[in-house]
Amino acid sequence: MASLHPFDPITPGEIQLATGIVQAAFQGIPLRYKKIDIQEPIKKEVVPFIEAERLGKPLPPRPTRLLQVLFHRLDNGAFYKALLNADTRSVISAKELPKDIQASVDPDELIEVEQLCLNHPAVQAEIAKLQLPPGATVCNDPWIYGTDDPKETRRLFQCYMYIVATDHPQNNHYSTPCKFSPVFDALKQELVRMDYLPGGADAQTTETQPWKPVETIQYAHDLLQEPLRTDLKPYIVQQPHGPSFNVQGNVVSWQKWRFHVGFNSREGLVIHNLTYDGRSVFYRLSVSEMTVPYGDPRAPYHRKQAFDVGDVGFGITANQLSLGCGCLGHIKYFDGYRADSKGNPVHLPNVICLHEQDNGLQHKHTNYRTNAATVVRNRQLVVQMICTVANYEYIFAFIFDQAANIELEVRATGILSTVPFDNQDPGTTVPWGINVGPGVMAPYHQHMFSFRMDPALDGFQNTVYYEDSVPMPEDDTNNPYLVGYTTEQTVLKTSGTAETSVDRHRVFKIRNDAHINPITYKPIAYKLQTAPSQMLLASPRSFGAKRAAFATKPIWVTKYQDDELFAAGEFTNQSKASQGVEKWIQRQDAVENEDIVLWHTFGLTHNPRIEDFPVMPMERISVMLKPDGFFTSNPALDVPQSAQSFNRSTLHQPTCCKL
Amino acid sequence: MASLHPFDPITPGEIQLATGIVQAAFQGIPLRYKKIDIQEPIKKEVVPFIEAERLGKPLPPRPTRLLQVLFHRLDNGAFYKALLNADTRSVISAKELPKDIQASVDPDELIEVEQLCLNHPAVQAEIAKLQLPPGATVCNDPWIYGTDDPKETRRLFQCYMYIVATDHPQNNHYSTPCKFSPVFDALKQELVRMDYLPGGADAQTTETQPWKPVETIQYAHDLLQEPLRTDLKPYIVQQPHGPSFNVQGNVVSWQKWRFHVGFNSREGLVIHNLTYDGRSVFYRLSVSEMTVPYGDPRAPYHRKQAFDVGDVGFGITANQLSLGCGCLGHIKYFDGYRADSKGNPVHLPNVICLHEQDNGLQHKHTNYRTNAATVVRNRQLVVQMICTVANYEYIFAFIFDQAANIELEVRATGILSTVPFDNQDPGTTVPWGINVGPGVMAPYHQHMFSFRMDPALDGFQNTVYYEDSVPMPEDDTNNPYLVGYTTEQTVLKTSGTAETSVDRHRVFKIRNDAHINPITYKPIAYKLQTAPSQMLLASPRSFGAKRAAFATKPIWVTKYQDDELFAAGEFTNQSKASQGVEKWIQRQDAVENEDIVLWHTFGLTHNPRIEDFPVMPMERISVMLKPDGFFTSNPALDVPQSAQSFNRSTLHQPTCCKL
């Protein structure tokens, strides 16, 4: 493993190594593994290494390869975190964590809880009361149990139950939710309580009644009642000379960009050590956390607040992609590995895809006197993963272009999380959701993402500031015609937060004060084009807000520290309060010309449309990072002209002539 | 011409007809034509006609075909507007307009003013003072003369002068601005005044001095000092079975959408009579106006405020496109016609293009239990025009998709409008612009667009309202866990304005109260996903703001009236004040369940980056219209599965094996 790069994802051999080391340290004790993964390497060890790489100098010693193992002791239920040195094959530390800390869900556990639920006599008794017609069965989605009791230390799952009306692998059970919902202790494997769900427009619940069959609203093509469209013609992307990218291991080079594709079970895709034309730009980019709180105020729905990164993990929920589905053109796939509950490596083929796309025009100018035009198309490189978190899908893409822009694009799709809703009085609606089918309602919710940016603009000491556009004072000398406007800069000198502002056209920038642009006379910089979003709607006094402090402010700046990767803290499952950015800013660190991290919270207040059911047309949000005085001119000037000889488009001939 | 559809653009025959009718009415008087175009047909005549078309019923009488002619009498300089009935070949009205009303610029006039300027002895005297090196010449961009004097009635142009250092058809003269700027009266063809431009960081001007040669920052590929990139491989879109669209005349059908492609010299591309699956959606969509005020407070820059629709026109500045430049794949082009100053038709080939594009995934869901996935790609139909307004380029696209979404995408590119800037003290900067090269500065400015939406959601009586997402009160009964949130609706009952609000996640919707969705029990609706933007920065007391009232509020709702098409009024060139939306709302019309128009002002506060020079990587803004309860489920459910047999992607093979 000596040849592994510090940013390489974990290998199956490392998983086996970790299992061996830990099992040796806990001789004879049965263990259940929750996570075996790389531990982010220590930055101060990595920087000299990647700087030597970048500058083509002799490499210093390789940073220590660290592994992280989370596991339960099955003899006493204790939850441990161990840190291993893979180079020396030794344990650095192994400590038991407090009782109220819960690990994230792992895929084996999810299946176990599902089965535990379905096989439980109390659940079967409820199912019997439904008096289902022949062929209909029941399934369940085990849900993370959002905190509502500060003293709770059990490992709980709330199982939402659904009727499966059709034996089809894509039956949409979310269309037919049941009105009972058992809660299980996953460690003790026992039923904690049977919850009953509100059946109508208020919070009232009833005993389970026989099911009155309703139509299932299906999305699968072979379950649709209407025929498919037949008039969509093929659209084929051909790259006869191959792609413009080059991949060596996990290192991608494309159009002056170079970066390392990282993968871990929690964040999934990570971009490491991003450079442009040999200049350092970002040390690390990732989607650090997200939370999805629901707005339906009724029990038990107040506990629906998923942290899809911390509670589950985008790496372990990443789809295994295949040719022709997610991308067009020439596709490179990257694989990943995770550990199962026994500590064995599990191969995750094709969890990240890489391809080029054409995004229309990048720049054009026609000199109207001569009619001579320069036209350059916008070729992009897309690095993408698609995560299925039970009902929902997220498509995350880092998109790079030739003008040195970086985009984080998020697409939300999949199926709405639904609840039962009897509207026996036709016309009944609720103020926190929308009826999407017979007997089914989709509550309002928010999707709040945390984009973590660890900048390295021409070096590792950077500064964040914001710039507002403001009218000049109405002054006869300096602004006599009252049209002047200017900008105001505010430097974030101490770790803290900031607000976005549409009214002031607030733009956040990251700069390096030690590197002055020779033409603008200002420090080289990148700007963050934020996605100004409504912040968390839950009351600051709610557990929902306390657990997701990152989602209460759009901008956070912290001083870099190893181990501060996740906006809501390391352990979010059943957390009582966040242990993330809101703690780290309290250090009041100086963050001007320091090694800093910029965190942007953005999201969707998603009050569903009925058009989002039974499967949701993607909702797209985008955040951009753009050079702003980083170069001395448009960096895409040297992209060749768009030409028919290259693009080979075809001309539409009027069909009237043929008629 | 009896076979023309009410929404068809003007034909060359109609231009000749109009010239003949007008010249006959003004026998013997020399005329100069400013504009000959269709007049928007009278809506109450059109609606029965298109409704009969839509429903396949016998057609009522065709609406009167109206033509509009703007012209100057050359004997007395009077400016006239005539309205003609093309069916009866007669003048409906012809009236002289007040002296302070100026027509828009026409291409012939632009060239005339350019030549007038270059040939003028006073200009030549200034050029001589530059003592240019051999081979260097001077050119000028005649600029619309923004109002600063309420008594001005002359037809003025401010000519900005540039040094042309290289005899190349794409020399970037914007890199080398001169410091003198003559003002001409275009009707009297005379010099009004020689303005001198500030040369440094303050408003001070100086006599013209010999030019100290500096490098021109070039964008043309064969003028670049560095070689072009050689590692970009072809990316070819093939549609072997042809496009999925069908075009008959100007009517386009694609994936349940049907609309009429309109074109006129002022707005360029217009979408008329948009239906989805036979249901009426929008009567008319267009970019109604835009204004570009500059933030440099110094004379004469305070007069830089272009109205690119009203002062010039997107139809007459639309690029004539060619295969392989603007779009990939299978392209249909539409032509247009305008009149020249003598009243002759001018053919404008390929001013609008139509093509399909792939926009990644539209929806996906994987049932994690069975691993069965539904994956549907997002095919789009793009109708696009590209306008060159002197230095700048705008790319406007209406984009339709299979989930019944409509997007207006604007891309700003082209070249920054620059001013001379001596920074003899290296390090000098100004607070209202940025240095982009030696001796050249790019001032801050705004681009404010008005998107005019004339809705017809299942009929012509519609209502606009907005919906905010707000926390529920902290109430032990209804919101005991403090996580509940709901929506508040505010109906715009009277013509007026509204603000956007990110903090309240404000969404604007258009609904038809007479059509209730059978599942949601709410009126069928579309929502407008606004582009919340900083509004006009100029003081309300400035001419800049008075002339562009539409740019002071993001949302306007008016009751439909024929002739109310342009947000800042019909005549914007040298206007003293707007005669547009701000006047029309004052009627205090009832707009609930009425024939209404929704106007959305959005834009860019564009404080240039040096990366925007010498040609600007496109800046993209997008506004979406999405069905919201218009259907009873996702309208793209019936789009076939994305499959490799259809998409024919290729797999990247590691190159390491070949090395």
Automatic annotation (TrEMBL), chains A, B:
Question: Main EC class of this protein?
Answer: oxidoreductase
UniProt modified residues of type 2',4',5'-topaquinone: 392
Could you say which protein family the record assigns here? Belongs to the copper/topaquinone oxidase family.
Cofactor(s) listed in the protein's UniProt record: Cu cation
Question: Which keywords, in A-to-Z order, does the entry hold?
Answer: Copper, Disulfide bond, Metal-binding, Oxidoreductase, TPQ
Keyword Oxidoreductase part of the UniProt annotation: yes
**Which Pfam families does the record cross-reference, listed alphabetically?**
Cu_amine_oxid, Cu_amine_oxidN2
Copper amine oxidase catalytic domain ranges (all copies): 237-637
Name the catalytic site residues. Answer: 308 (proton acceptor), 392 (schiff-base intermediate with substrate)
What residue stretches are annotated with the Copper amine oxidase N2-terminal domain? 5-64
Per the entry, the cofactor note is: Contains 1 topaquinone per subunit.
E.C. no: 1.4.3.-
Q: What about PTM?
A: Topaquinone (TPQ) is generated by copper-dependent autoxidation of a specific tyrosyl residue.
The residues forming the signal peptide are none
Q: Is S-adenosyl-L-methionine found in the keyword set?
A: no
What InterPro entries is this protein classified in? Cu_Am_ox_TPQ-bd, Cu_amine_oxidase, Cu_amine_oxidase_C, Cu_amine_oxidase_C_sf, Cu_amine_oxidase_N-reg, Cu_amine_oxidase_N2
* GO biological process, alphabetically ordered: amine metabolic process
Oligomeric state and interaction partners are given as: Homodimer.
Superkingdom of origin organism: Eukaryota
Query: Protein name, please?
Result: Amine oxidase
Enumerate the GO terms in the molecular function aspect.
copper ion binding; primary methylamine oxidase activity; quinone binding
